[in-house]
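Field reference: sequence -> structure
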Amino acid sequence: MASKSVQQKQEDRLNSGSSTGMGAWLWHRAKPYTPPWIVTGGVGLAGAGANLQWGETPWAGVGLTLASVGITAATWWSGKSTGPQRRLHSAITVAAGSAWLTSAALSGPLSGPLPDLYLMGGATLALSWNIRQVMRSSAPETSGESSDKGLLEKVGLARTKLKDVKVEPNRVTVPYELPAGELTNDDVSKAIPRIASALDVPTTAIRVQHDPDSARKGQFVIVPEDMLKTPTMWPGPFAPGQSIAVPLRIGVYDDGQDLVLPLLDAIHILIMGMTGSGKTEGALDVLFELLTRKDVVVWLADAAKAGQDFQPLLPAVDWAALDTPSAGAMVAAVQAVIPARTAWLRDHAYRAWEPAAAETQTDPAHSCATSGACGCPGMPYLVAWMEEAAKLLRDLGDDVFTGIAQEARSAGVSLVVSMQRASGYQLSTDTRASLPAAMCFGVRGDDAGFALPEEVLEAGANPAAWGNKRKGYVYVVSAGVDEDLYASPARTFWTGPSGEYERAARWIVQQFAGVRPELGPVTSAAAEKVAGTLFTNRAARAGAPAPASVGPTLTEEQESAQAVAALVDGEDADLDATAELPPVDGPADLPPAKPSPEEARELLDELVAMLASVGPGTVAVRDIYPYLEQIGRDRSWVSKQMKRLAEDGRLAPTGEDGVYRLVPVLAGV
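Structure field:
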């Protein structure tokens, strides 16, 4: 049964009598306030009796004085568990009463000023307690913990002291102090579900901010109403035409403040969320911001969906790799451009990429020349976005991003790895450790443990509570973001229904075409050397219309001749088909039949696959030389065919001339 409130107890006392009439009513109304007056009268009688007993005994004065001090000290000590006002009021009352009693016992209650002090002081103290009682009956007092003592006991945090409560619109902050030696902040984290149950709010509405300097202090942050239920439409670019050094605004927190992502602080980002969690919406918000800045270039790999979710934005992306060969080439290109970019920054006296590095180098302090400014073209920031990265990880290996993530920090390159479910089976622990920032949308079960740090989960972050029922809800953990916000839910902007997103994307593509920078010669040269035509023809491979070539009209005979010529092997192009064969002097051993061009190419494909499978995944032109007789072709033919395989996406060039990496091709690709 629930305990009665102060008002209920007061009412019970008022209605406890059975008499009727005006006098009885007045007595029942006054009865709760009589104890202080009764005590005052009792002190007067006690003083008179003590005088009769000890008025002539000098040693009684010593005993009564010590008793007065002792009872006052006992009152102060006993009141430590109450509020400071009640403790002080009680001690003053006991001290005044015991002092008057001692004086009356020694000199008599009617001597000197004692009668006046009794009448005035006793009445004043009695009235002060009556006033306190009236105030309690109208508004129960709180002592910082008394009002919540029962709740804290229920959730296993008994004797926890609550400090000054700070109340804001839809946000309550309650500092706490746990009993020393009994509880720690870990106990508070474990009690969050029970606290949420007691307050009848979702677990995500409560988080704990631990005091970094104490194991038993911190504060509860309670957001009773979910202000994120209604999505916020994308309000437009946060810093159009400005540097990527300005944080990206991608949503709002549950207390109304902007959700911003400082990319230069985050460096590399893991984006994770199950199907339907709003991960794609969050990605669009980030891309909307990136594609409106003046010093950043985006490479996007999406072999799983061929860029299905990003089609309207692809014209603004420098390189869109929409199939497995192109995505593999992009990974190799990113690995290759890192040392080239780092060398350029070193030569221009930059310890790390900064916005000035994207401008033409007119500052003598950042010059590769021995004297004066070099005037070199700038080098914009590069974002390598790997969408649905699980497919790439399966095709290329779970450590494919490890080197990039570890080496790109100072090269002005950010790696974004987006996947539905990250785990140790898909992403190597070295790569995960090199992705310092995370955006975690709704997930299943314990999947969040791979995206969010343990201390953030202990503070109340629980994306599994959303799943795919809260589209766009996200936790963001990144350097440059206030750590107190790590466990605060946020929601990314909504780009609108079908048609609205496409309209906004077209506006960004067209409006900021003159703002977005070129890739720059340093990055372009390094990427072309590794990826070849997969890089140089990136616009056409991404679906952009190839320029039409206008040539002379051919006759049927000319078209037929061209078709026949296309079937002739290149090595036989100079032979005269009408010339007579040389005479044969006698019987001779005929050489083995030369494989046809198609057979030679098939043999080469098999050799390349075999050599790459037994080696480190690479194959060089020189590795084919022992098999030239079997193929029936020379070295130049092999070199040309290897380049053809690279152009077709079967091989990816490496940083070494004539050495290629085998690109896996899945069934159906």
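Note: The first helix runs from residue 6 to 14.
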